[in-house]
Automatic annotation (TrEMBL):
Lineage: Bacteria, Bacillati, Actinomycetota, Thermoleophilia, Solirubrobacterales
Protein's membrane topology: Multi-pass membrane protein
Entries under InterPro entries matching the protein: EmrB-like (IPR004638), MFS (IPR011701), MFS_dom (IPR020846), MFS_trans_sf (IPR036259)
Matches recorded under Gene3D superfamilies: MFS general substrate transporter like domains, Multidrug resistance protein D
Record Pfam families: MFS_1
Protein name: DHA2 family efflux MFS transporter permease subunit
Subcellular location per the Swiss-Prot or TrEMBL entry: Cell membrane
Length: 485
């Protein structure tokens, strides 16, 4: 994107005052947020029920892990396809189709009589979820404009945070009173209601039937991203980095992504030579825009910190404080509560002060909220641990939402499908790699004792938080240069 494009909208960097948001936009935001809520809730609810499902389906827990893994891998497959799908069909149509597919796949999951069929249904569910998230962000970005995007993205963030936070508790309650299929049947009322409301509220978006799919590029992306995630997942489950289960998918995945990066410029030159030719599945030229690049890198690092913390904190409660999985999930509610409380204020701050300033403050806050866990005794007072979790939740809200908002503010409206797909891919890859590295640190430290391992892992998490904070300040400096220029 050119510098001129950025200077056309100085208000995207620092508006004088937040512009009012019509009620129709708020209703649209809440509707779109329902999809993000279901996606997050489903992943954490299912994690609680894996043991129960393994027993009922007559399989082992190791095989039942594919119920969760298949969903995550499929989500990674769908993300790169959204850039083309959003341009071809319109973001609103993609969102409606993905919500219908997610709801239908939830019913198939509940009816699955075997592990194999359940995993297949989870793949469909993950593909739909991978389209729901970027399509929803694009719909909101097109509907509200850059000056009001902070408050709307913060509203979306409330639901994104609430899903994983409530999942363990909801899953535990459901399994106490009903059979495991109800873990999936819970999605049906929300999905059906959202589809009915979407007929009236969701703008369909601009469709371009002339958009041809970049088959080779999509193949490279939908191969490379899941393979990297699969390698990170295997490493996080205790496989050594040199084992074939980690090394082979990692090398193959990285090779596929590098091949796409080399192939995309060639295809772009070919598309410019004549009409009717396919354009690259993902527009990597967005990374040449300083503000988008800073926001995207910060979002990836923030994803690593968020996913890494989501891995380490439950283990802190389980290994360090002797809680079971359900108790650990309940203990984590304070983290989600902190984010949900802060997000409305964060949204207003973004629209008033600029995403870079809020993100810079948030980056430092995440770092400062991580360090205490690296020094506290495992039997630290309960109230102190819960207070730190609330503070950390506030800090994550300050750090994560502004980076995504800044990325979408940095591009023009036709570029939003590619921008949302690219940011979500980078955030997902950052989360997978960050979570795997911290899992390795924790596993290698356990022979030295639980307390040593937990403290060491939190210090590594603090290093990741420090890198994210530096990247957030880079975003702030870029915004200041654009404002002056």
């Amino acid at each position: 994107m050119s510098t001129a494009a950025a200077t056309r909208r100085p208000s995207a960097v620092r508006p004088a005052a937040p512009a009012p948001i019509p009620g129709t936009v708020w209703r649209l935001a809440i509707l779109i947020a329902s999809g993000a809520f279901l996606s997050g809730l489903d992943s954490s609810v299912v994690a609680v029920g894996l043991d129960t499902m393994a027993v009922r389906l007559g399989t082992g827990l190791a095989d039942a892990q594919w119920i969760a893994t298949a969903y995550l891998l499929a989500l990674g497959v769908a993300l790169p396809a959204y850039g083309w799908a959003g341009r071809r069909f319109g973001s609103g149509r993609v969102w409606i189709g993905a919500m219908a597919a997610f709801t239908g796949a939830s019913l198939l999951c509940a009816l699955a009589p075997s592990l194999e069929l359940l995993v297949a249904a989870r793949v469909l569910q993950g593909l739909a979820a991978g389209l729901l998230i970027p399509a929803g962000q694009t719909v909101l970005g097109e509907a509200v404009g850059p000056e009001r995007l902070g408050r709307v993205m913060a509203t979306l963030g409330i639901f994104v945070t609430a899903g994983p936070a409530l999942g363990p508790v909801v899953g535990g309650l459901v399994l106490d009173v009903a059979a495991w299929p109800w873990l999936f049947l819970l999605n049906l009322p929300v999905g059906v209601a959202a589809l009915l409301a979407a007929r009236r509220l969701v703008p369909r978006g601009a469709a371009d039937p002339a958009q041809r799919a970049d088959g080779p590029g999509l193949l490279l992306l939908v191969t490379g991203i899941p393979l990297v995630v699969l390698a990170a997942t295997a490493a996080g489950e205790g496989r050594a980095p040199g084992e074939a289960a980690v090394l082979v998918p990692l090398l193959a995945g990285v090779a596929a992504l590098v091949a796409f990066a080399a192939y995309a410029p060639w295809l772009r030159r070919r598309a410019a030579a004549g009409p009717g030719r396919a354009r690259p599945a993902l527009d990597l030229r967005l990374l040449a825009h300083p503000r988008f690049a800073a926001a995207a890198v910060t979002s990836a690092l923030a994803g690593a910190v968020m996913v890494g913390g989501a891995l380490v904190l439950p283990l802190y409660f389980q290994l360090g404080r002797g809680q079971d999985a359900l108790q650990a999930g309940a203990s984590m509610i304070a983290l989600g509560a902190g984010s949900m409380i802060a997000l409305p204020l964060v949204g207003r701050a973004i629209d008033r002060l600029g995403a870079g300033r809020v993100s810079a403050v948030g980056g430092v806050a995440v770092l400062l909220s991580t360090i205490p866990f690296g020094v506290l005794d495992l039997d630290a007072p309960w109230w102190l641990v819960q207070l730190l979790l609330v503070v950390r939740g506030v800090a994550i809200a300050l750090a994560l939402v502004p980076t995504m908002t800044a990325a979408y503010q940095a591009v023009d409206r036709p570029q939003l499908p590619d921008a949302t797909a690219l940011v979500n891919i980078l955030q997902r890859l950052g989360g997978a790699v960050g979570g795997a590295l911290l899992a390795i640190v924790l596993a290698t430290g356990l022979p030295d004792g639980t307390e040593v391992a937990v403290h060491r892992t939190f210090w590594w998490l603090a290093v990741a938080a420090g890198l994210a904070a530096l990247s957030a300040w880079w975003l702030l400096l870029v915004e200041r240069r654009e404002r002056v220029g």
